[in-house]
């Protein structure tokens, strides 16, 4: 039987996946200011398609730790990309 | 799939469904009705039926429109826009935003005479409710965006849970079985049979709400400065001085389509044409100088990426698609509503023997937010016929009527046990549904009552009413049997 704290951790991981999409998307859009409009539309269409699989993935993996660690890493990388943009 | 993984996905599907299912039902039901928002507005304004479906726009009417626009500018009204007659609505409308909704005179396109229809939000009420839930901006749109996200998760987790039985589920519906089994069959059948529609509408909805659901993080101050400059550039003079009719004729030849609407922005008059019978929501526009009437340009052709984006929008808002596809979308929307409702009721029916506070709350919320909303929607249409046509602020009264009926359903759910409140609600909704055509017959002239528009709306309301009465009888029989 899966415990409630485990579900809570997976839920946090799912929300982190969403945050990672926002971070990466913003970073990519900011990196190509010449095509901001097209990049924004492209990012939103792709991120909308990826959002559900990414959030369900957090409940698919065997351990909540894997989900948490990977999603946190993705958020941090996205944040780093966003900060180091020119 | 391992049992542990299945249990996790099941938990996600159950709780995401319980928390956002009620929002999703409201969004889907009003969205389904909003597919025919223009037609509903016409039904709710029977006075506009004096304009025949094939009425042509005359230069005289356009001159009258121009006169009204200039008067509006002098009185300091916010910039208006024109809705030109088309196949869905043959009237000519001059609308402006009054802070709550779009209001303005309705004209006969043949003569330019003002028609004076009853004040109503019409189908726009359902359209606005669909993407804001009538919650003040920006929170309504944000709640809808969150619900869209959760619904996407629900669809995917549901598909993964039923993946093995996806094909057999197409052919399984045991109506004589116990209630939970019957509900589950209905939930899975409507879910799997219309799966492409669910995926398409959820994805396109997510893209449309992406501004709220997937915000862009900027570290620069670009947006603030842009906003300031746009305020500084605001021009108080917006009504066109050049003859509107001449510009309209030129716009027709430049666009190759009959323009559907006209907007006025500073010194520019823009004629836009909806590409009817297509999935592309990109409207073609011709721009003219408002003072001289000189043609200044056309919108540049969209790139392939932009076109893909517009098609995705067009697939969701269904504004430019033909009637057949619109009805198919309507059926898809109804299937989505049945899927959500049966899923939510299944949760409470399955756990009937384990009485918990969550179950009690879910049962009452089901009565209020599923049955109550349907009853309120029919009540909204009834209010339109019951409130006298020239009653001041009747548009607000209709909306208040809608929320009062919904609140009464909530009170009923609190006051009575769920089984009893479901039965009462089924009978009430049934009577309301059957009452719509009756009230329509009493209020509008017989010639209008027999038109295709009125027959369709009335028949659908009567059908909903009959289904609700049938459900009420079924519930009574089941409770006697139990």
UniProtKB/TrEMBL annotation, chain B:
PANTHER family reported for this sequence: IRON-REGULATED INNER MEMBRANE PROTEIN-RELATED (PTHR34219), PEPSY DOMAIN-CONTAINING PROTEIN (PTHR34219:SF4)
Keyword set includes Transmembrane helix: yes
Membrane as UniProt keyword: yes
Domain of life: Bacteria
Protein name: Peptidase
Organism this protein belongs to: Acetobacter okinawensis
InterPro entries xrefs: PepSY-ass_TM (IPR005625)
UniProt keywords, alphabetically: Membrane, Transmembrane, Transmembrane helix
Transmembrane domains' residue ranges: 12-36, 139-161, 182-206, 327-347, 367-387, 399-417, 424-449, 455-475
């Amino acid at each position: 039987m899966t415990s409630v704290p485990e579900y809570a951790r997976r839920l946090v991981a799912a929300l982190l996946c969403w945050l990672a999409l926002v971070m990466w998307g913003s970073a990519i859009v900011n990196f190509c200011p010449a095509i901001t409009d097209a990049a924004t539309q492209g990012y939103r269409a792709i991120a909308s398609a990826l959002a559900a699989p990414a959030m369900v993935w957090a409940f698919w993996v065997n351990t909540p730790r894997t989900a948490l660690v990977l999603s946190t890493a993705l958020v941090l990388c996205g944040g780093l990309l966003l900060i180091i943009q020119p | 799939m391992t049992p542990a993984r299945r249990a996790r996905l099941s938990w996600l599907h159950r709780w995401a469904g319980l928390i956002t299912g009620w929002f999703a039902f409201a969004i889907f039901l009003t969205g389904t009705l909003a597919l025919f928002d223009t037609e509903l507005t016409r039904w709710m304004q029977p006075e506009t039926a004096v304009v025949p479906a094939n009425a042509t726009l005359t230069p005289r009417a356009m001159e009258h429109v121009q006169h009204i626009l200039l008067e509006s500018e002098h009185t300091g009204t916010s910039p208006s826009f024109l809705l030109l007659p088309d196949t869905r609505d043959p009237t000519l409308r001059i609308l402006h935003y009054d802070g709550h909704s779009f209001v303005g005179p309705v004209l006969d396109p043949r003569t330019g005479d003002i028609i004076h229809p009853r004040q109503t939000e019409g189908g726009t009420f359902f359209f606005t409710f669909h993407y804001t839930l009538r919650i003040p901006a920006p929170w309504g749109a944000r709640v809808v965006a969150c619900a869209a996200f959760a619904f996407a998760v629900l669809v995917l987790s549901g598909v993964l849970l039923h993946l093995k039985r996806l094909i057999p589920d197409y052919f399984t519906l045991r109506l004589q079985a116990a209630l939970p089994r019957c509900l589950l069959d209905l939930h899975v059948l409507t879910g799997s049979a219309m799966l492409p529609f669910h995926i398409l509408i959820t994805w396109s909805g997510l893209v449309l709400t992406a501004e709220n659901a997937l915000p862009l993080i900027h570290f620069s101050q670009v947006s603030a400065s842009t906003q300031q400059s746009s305020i500084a550039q605001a021009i108080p003079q917006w009504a066109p001085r050049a003859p509107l009719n001449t510009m309209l004729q030129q716009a027709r030849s430049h666009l190759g389509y009959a323009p559907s609407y006209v907007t006025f922005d500073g010194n520019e008059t823009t004629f836009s044409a909806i590409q009817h019978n297509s999935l592309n929501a990109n409207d073609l526009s011709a721009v003219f100088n408002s003072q001289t009437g000189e043609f200044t340009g056309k919108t540049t052709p969209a790139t392939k990426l932009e076109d893909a984006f517009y098609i995705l929008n067009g697939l969701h808002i269904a504004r430019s698609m033909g009637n057949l596809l619109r009805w198919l979308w309507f059926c898809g929307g109804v299937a989505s509503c049945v899927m959500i409702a049966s899923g939510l009721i299944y949760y409470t029916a399955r756990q009937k023997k384990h009485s918990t506070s969550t179950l009690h709350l879910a049962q009452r919320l089901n009565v209020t937010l599923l049955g109550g909303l349907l009853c309120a929607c029919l009540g909204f249409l009834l209010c339109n016929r019951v409130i006298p046509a020239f009653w001041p602020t009747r548009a607000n009264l209709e909306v208040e009527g809608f929320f009062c009926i919904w609140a009464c359903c909530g009170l009923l759910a609190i006051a009575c046990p769920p089984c009893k409140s479901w039965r009462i609600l089924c009978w009430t909704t049934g009577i309301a549904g059957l009452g719509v055509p009756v009230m329509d017959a009493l209020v509008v002239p017989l010639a209008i009552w027999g038109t295709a528009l009125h027959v369709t709306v009335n028949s659908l309301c009567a059908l909903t009413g009959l289904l609700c009465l049938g459900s009420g009888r079924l519930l009574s029989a089941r409770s006697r049997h139990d």
